[in-house]
Write a structure and sequence with these properties.
The protein is an alpha/beta fold and 405 residues long. Helices cover 33% and strands 11% of the residues. The chain has eleven helices and eight strands. It has helices at residues 38-49, 68-71, 77-85, 108-127, 157-167, 184-189, 238-256, 282-299, 318-330, 342-351, 380-392, and strands at 15-20, 58-61, 131-136, 173-177, 196-203, 227-232, 260-264, 304-307. It has an eight-stranded parallel beta sheet, with helices on both faces. The longest helix is centred in the N-terminal third of the chain and has 20 residues, at 108-127. The two termini are 25 Å apart.
Length: 405
Amino acid sequence: MSGGTSAGRATADRCETLVVWDDALLSYDLGDHPLDPVRVELAMALARDLGVLDRPGVTVAAPKPADDAALTRVHRADYLHAVRAAPHDPFFSGYGLGTSDNPVFEGMHEASALIAGATLTAAEAVWLGRARRAVSVAGGLHHAMPGRAAGFCVYNDPAVAIARLLDLGAERVAYVDIDVHHGDGVQEIFYRDPRVLTVSVHETPLALFPGTGFPDETGGPGAEGSAVNLALPPGTGDVAWLRAFDAVVPSVLRAFRPQILVSQCGADSHRADPLADLRLSVDGQRAAQLAMRALADELCDGRWVATGGGGYALVEVVPRTWTHLLATATGEPIDPATLTPASWRTLALTRRPGSDVPIRMTDDADVRFEPWQPTGEPDAVDRAVMATRRAVFPLHGLDPHDPRD
């Protein structure tokens, strides 16, 4: 490891996986809003009831809020002042706050800083060798911009964590975002920084918020190739999504040679999600998580920081998908045929009466796929893959037409 850091160094208190959690993270509550904290509560409860958090080598630790020094590495000081002031000013407007997407709520700064602190804690633990992997399921608020809230996100916790990694000496950080929405805030913050590779696999911006993430967004001057955008058509399901991911993401990561992988694992690519139009299953999302863990093992000595993100099927999808994420990060993946515990089903109905509570950890989907080939008559997904490969592969010395690259 270059850069004079202690990344990967074994320590006496090293754990295999750090899960950063405290019930106080549920205070990021936008009220009557799609981003309901019950989804995170139920995810952690399901993981706990299935014994994932009690596995050997797993440490669950509470975060501290990110301080102003950490937050102002990516956000403007005047924006922090606005976030603090808005709940106390009935006439407040501006900075993207007080909208239907980002309503103002009491304790907004404190709740947002705590989520940023959770992902910051996860990243520090992995980089400094205290943990091999770390998960911050409440994190993944990837739309927040340096000077405004956007897309349900007040502070951009993945960007805050990546900035800390750079300050600690990281020279090559890869960020892979599989939320159905483009990871625009993280891309924007590091668009001119060649040390950070941002890769986003999302529904086409022609059909979905935030309207960015086209293949020709490839990085700013001096950082050409540092942004990779794979924009998929509405209706893309497991097999096509996984084939597209496999045709782009491993190649650019291998060319970049990251020292650490940071992932945003939004669950809103699921076919049941009410806010988007991809058609993945829980099984497909689980396969994507396993692929990212394998890439971290191959390229980063296992160093992987995973966050949550979007996901608005609050009972039906998010708890299962993020429990699979926690299991993938902590050791043996959960068998998809596993039953959800009766205790968890009772809790889910208590929190969300009338919900369709899933009985098993699977959607019974077949996620096997054939690797992408630039031959035959391309469909819409193949055309999206080729657009991304043509835009960015040559910037990494890769041949967009060679399936081996």
